[in-house]
Design goal:
Blueprint: H1 30-41, H2 45-53, H3 56-68, E1 74-78, H4 84-91, E2 96-101, H5 104-114, E3 124-128, E4 141-147, H6 156-166, E5 167-178, H7 187-206, H8 211-220, H9 225-234, E6 238-245, E7 250-256
Parallel strand pairs: 1-2, 1-4, 2-3, 4-5
Antiparallel strand pairs: 5-7, 6-7
Length: 263
């Protein structure tokens, strides 16, 4: 599949009523829309995340970093945004981190932020790049991580294959993502939060009307935690941990690249 395809990774249910393509102009492909959208909200991205999650997003990133990183690892943070997961990986013991993002304004914020963190500026770098074509050699990193990004990648299987390519045998992957709450008493509350509260907060603070309208739609059209586990397994990864956070609205997957790929 063409990485610029507008077709999202899907696990659609009867609740998925709005196509993400309805949010952006027909002449703009989804990858371009996502890049421009995140660039437009870069200056308010951290504030909005803090409000929407009551500040918990920092703890989730620290948790993922601690589950992923082993001492002196080389890590790539894909869709690094403003750099919080990259910094968490350094603090968890990584030797070096490369943060990669398609939105240049996000990288500006990340580079500015890292200068305020003691003793990390020499071991962390941020570069422009795409999850489906990372600027890394084969088997060159010990860990691949991402936070709240993969549902925005038009061809997710290509990105996962790219993670496999750059990871060393025995390397690990950690991913945080928003997931649909498909059952249970909190399902209606989660849907109300994502479909009503989040777009309102995002519009008021960021001034970008469609960015946070897109967020709940992208969640509706993304894999459930179980389906994402299956996707990683099909790609050859051994999934070692799936953790549900924030009342089931966030999923953390940790997986390992076996020394020998099972086919």
């Amino acid at each position: 599949m063409d990485p610029s395809s507008t077709e999202p990774a899907t696990d659609r249910s009867e609740d998925s009523k709005v196509d993400p393509k309805a949010i952006y102009p027909s002449e703009v492909d989804r990858a371009t829309y996502v890049r421009n959208m995140f660039g437009a909200i870069a200056g308010r991205y951290d504030l909005i995340n803090t409000i929407m999650t009551a500040g918990r997003h920092y703890a989730w990133r620290r948790f993922a970093a601690n589950e992923l990183v082993r001492s002196n690892d080389m890590i790539v943070d894909v869709g690094c945004g403003t750099g919080d997961l990259s910094i968490a990986c350094l603090k968890a013991g990584a030797h070096s981190v490369l943060g990669v993002d398609v939105a240049a304004p996000m990288l500006v914020v990340a580079r500015r932020k890292v200068t305020r963190v003691p003793a990390v500026t020499q071991t962390i770098n941020f570069v422009g790049g795409d999850a489906t074509a990372l600027p890394l050699s084969d088997q060159s990193v010990d860990g691949w991580c991402s936070a709240f990004v993969v549902r925005n990648i038009p061809d997710l299987d290509v990105a996962i294959a790219e993670a496999w390519r750059v990871l060393k045998p025995g390397g690990r992957l950690a991913n945080l993502e928003i997931t649909r709450v498909e059952r249970g008493p909190l399902r209606w509350l989660a849907r109300f939060h994502f479909t009503k509260v989040v777009p309102l907060i995002g519009r008021l603070i960021s001034g970008h009307a469609s960015a946070y309208q897109y967020l709940p739609i992208s969640v509706d059209h993304f894999d459930s935690a179980e389906k994402f586990t299956e996707r990683l397994t099909r790609a050859g990864f051994a999934v070692t941990e799936v953790r549900s956070l924030m009342f089931g609205t966030i999923a953390m997957h940790v997986a390992e690249k076996p020394h020998v790929k099972v086919v």
